[in-house]
Amino acid sequence: MNRHHGRYQVRHATPDDLPGARSLILDTFYREFGYGFVPRWHADVIDLQGCYLDHPRHALVVAVHEGEVVGTTALNSTGPAHPPHPRHLAERYPSGRTAQLLRVYVRAGHRRHGLARRMVDLARAFAAADGGYDRLYLHTNTDIPGAEPFWRALADEVFDARPTGEHGPGVATVHFEIPLPVPVGGTRPTA
Q1: Reported pTM
Q2: Strand partners, 115
Q3: Which residues contact 21 (CB under 8 A, 6 or more apart)?
Q4: How far apart are CA 51 and CA 141, in angstroms?
Q5: What values do phi and psi take at 114, rounded to 5?
Q6: Do residues 104 and 59 touch, judged by C-beta distance below 8 A?
Q7: 134-182 pLDDT, tens per residue?
């Protein structure tokens, strides 16, 4: 499915998009997050084709501007791992039944055009069409400007892991759940 918005195209990635998507994701790790590529956290980035394009329950959505990938959003069927995340989150969002959003990044010069929201909407529609997901989960780094307000506008907080959160020592991470749309002709299972 392609969605054109002005000069931008938001769609599922193709193999030709993968070098640009990988570049954007790695730039985000180094320039925005400041910690770079960490193999145990970022293995999917090495094999975007196998992790997202070849896997029937996973998706990689891109925003493209004049042939350049300027935004990414990934979805996989893996819930949060314990550790590093709390056990109660791993139990609430089990792998296989949980769609996890990740790699929701937009290049700085292309922000404020609604691209992240459009990519997330397309990924949500994909998860709903799959029919095997009960929940849509994500976590975000609140040190990134704009990340927390963006997710609060779309999602419900389920756990605040920041040191200032009510649950004590942690990192600058807040965990969220986004309601899945009801698939056409069906009802959303409850867990």
Answers
A1: 0.88
A2: none
A3: 13, 48, 60, 62, 69, 72
A4: 22
A5: 75, 15
A6: no
A7: 999 999 988 888 999 999 999 999 999 988 645 555 578 999 999 998 7
Q: Determine the Cα angle at 164 with ends 82 and 111, to 5°.
A: 80
Element housing 65 (H / E): strand 59-65
CA 116 distance to own-chain centroid: 10
Whole-number Å distance between alpha carbons of 15 and 19:
8
For residues 38, 39, 45 and 50, what is the CA-based torsion angle, rounded to 10 degrees? -170
Place of tokens 């084709």: 49
118/120 Cα distance (integer angstroms): 5
Residues 6+ apart with CB under 8 A from 63: 8, 9, 10, 69, 70, 71, 72, 106, 110, 115, 118, 119
The two structure tokens encoding residue 51:
């992790």
**CA separation for the pair 154, 125 (Å, rounded):** 14
pLDDT digits (tens, 9 = 90+) for 39-52: 888 899 999 999 99
The Cα 5–Cα 35 span in angstroms is 33
Tokens 């056990």 found at: 87
Whole-number Å distance between alpha carbons of 73 and 54: 16
- How far is the CA of 63 from the CAs of 74, 114, 175, 178, in angstroms? 12, 10, 24, 21
